[in-house]
Amino acid sequence: MNRIVILGGLDFFGFYLSQSLMNRGIEVIAVQEMPMTKLEYDLNSFFVRNSLFSLAFLPEQSDAAIDRVRRADKFVLNEYAQTFESAAVAKFTAENDVIRVCRENDKQEDPDIIPLFTVKVPTLYGPYQPEKMVFATLLTSIVKDEWTFTVDDLINEANQEAGDLLYVEDTADALADYITGNGAEDIQLTSGRKKRWKEAFCSLIQRYEKLTKYKEIATKVEDQDEKANDRFVIIKDRSIDEGIEEQFASIAQRLNGDENGFSEKES
């Protein structure tokens, strides 16, 4: 396996999956919708000097670019954070094996896209988590010391995220292992603990005194039902405390002007 295309290769999860595949010596083509977001531009800066990485865009009119994408060994349709129009996807995937990645509670099925297999993932956290998500919202507020939201503002998002939880980089590594190991079945990646998001949220509240006023969110979050129709693959990711520390350090570094810093831990 020499080349993999990732539609959404520079969003939160796509970035880590791209990085993990390139660490294995695999060429990655990230296909992005235009215009790109600021986060996508920032994440692209990590890869601009990597000879294994290149970009293509939607809509893409170049026949040469389309042909280059179609000659890839695999095509990952990364719908963790967004969905893509089937017509746009079909332009690139006519001759590819399509692997679809989506959230564990995603029930949407596009009849025009028949994936080789689907990988479901739970809520992910870590550096570069989207700002609207609960952990990113709270940690950013600590760094800025700005509190522009209420408990009720976070409840709806918390209920969408609650359930299982995995650290994004470790999840990307597990998926890269599965893809490069010729995995071919529908799977769901999991920590094996369906209330792990709530455990992590409580740990976050205990760690930072300024968040105490939001602790009632844990009592208002609805527990998720156990899913039964997917083949669960339990992965071992880093501890919640370590993951939260790395996400906080990333936010603090970026807000202090270090756009590229996300791997160093808070001292």
Number of domains: 2
**Biggest sheet statistics:** 8 strands, parallel
- Please give the order of strands in the largest beta sheet: 3-2-1-4-5-6-9-10
Helix and strand succession?
Answer: EHEHEHEHEEEHHEHEHHEH
Q: Terminal Cα separation, in Å?
A: 40 Å
Give the helix/strand class.
alpha/beta
Tell me, rounded to a whole number, the average pLDDT: 88
Low-pLDDT stretches: 261-267
Overall geometric form: globular
Number of helices: 10
Q: What is the helix fraction of residues, given as a range?
A: 25-40%
Question: How would you portray this structure in words?
Answer:
Helix 4 (86-93) links the parallel strand 4 and strand 5 (97-103). The model is unreliable at 261-267 (pLDDT under 50). This protein has 10 helices and 10 strands. An 8-stranded parallel beta sheet has the order 3-2-1-4-5-6-9-10, with helices on both faces. The chain has 2 domains: 1-115, 3-Layer(aba) Sandwich (Rossmann fold), CATH 3.40.50; 122-267. Helix 1 (12-23) packs across helix 7 and helix 5 (134-144) crosses helix 10. The relative contact order is 0.14. The chain is globular. The chain has helices at 12-23, 38-44, 63-70, 86-93, 134-144, 151-161, 168-180, 196-207, 217-220, 240-255, and strands at residues 3-7, 27-33, 53-58, 74-79, 97-103, 117-121, 123-125, 165-167, 187-190, 231-234. The chain has 267 residues and is of the alpha/beta class.
